[in-house]
Amino acid sequence: MAKVWAGIQAAYQVGFDPLKLNVVVIPGVNDQEVLDLAALTLDRQWHVRFIEFMPIGNADLFADRGWVASSELRARICQHWGLEAGYVQGNGPADVFQIPGAQGTLGFISQMSECFCDRCNRMRLSADGWLRPCLLNETGQLDLRTLLRSGQPMAQLRQQVQALLHLKPEINYQERQSGAREQGYSRTMSQIGG
User: Fold this and answer.
1) What does the alpha-carbon distance between residue 130 and residue 117 come to, in Å, rounded to a whole number?
2) Considering only CA atoms, which of 118, 114, 113, 142 is closest in space to residue 129?
3) Which of 12, 73, 179, 182 is 20 to 30 A (C-alpha) from 82?
4) pLDDT tens across 14-44, in order?
5) Beta strand 47-52 with 105-109: parallel, antiparallel or unpaired?
6) CA 33 to each of CA 21, 24, 56, 116, 150: distance values in angstroms, whole numbers, following the listed order
7) Positive or negative, the Cα torsion across 116, 118, 119, 124?
8) Are strands 84-85 and 95-98 parallel, antiparallel or unpaired?
């Protein structure tokens, strides 16, 4: 843990300000650190994002511990300091809050407990070149690496990406739970860049 904190401090010292920290909260692993992490926003313009653990592709991982609902984390923080709507509103899936008087913000990404598919505007490009319209669903992936390497004209690539964007709302809802529960999900979070 000391190395992680040293890395965070080094990033801040070289100019990453505001700093954004993503924290996947897992019961029995780091859930006891939630208040300490939230406190980092009190006197710094840091943005801490609490993310519910997603067992994509490895449903047995942390099966006995699962994930902590964002509502529970918000309640803990609210009980300690209070909590209000954040002054920074993002374009992503995080619900943004702030401890009253704090310089930074707290975000909660609640993909397991509070479905936000209806307002998701994200696409994901994996390290191996797959463009995915939905993290929880492998439907509609586009193999950009192969298409680019084969010399497909940019106009055709744009059309394919636009078609995928057009289908995104339907894909977002289609079999939403399959990624987290089915053994057939072929890739883990680490393999898709999560």
Assistant:
1) 20
2) 142
3) 12
4) 999 889 999 999 998 899 999 999 999 999 9
5) parallel
6) 13, 11, 24, 26, 48
7) positive
8) antiparallel
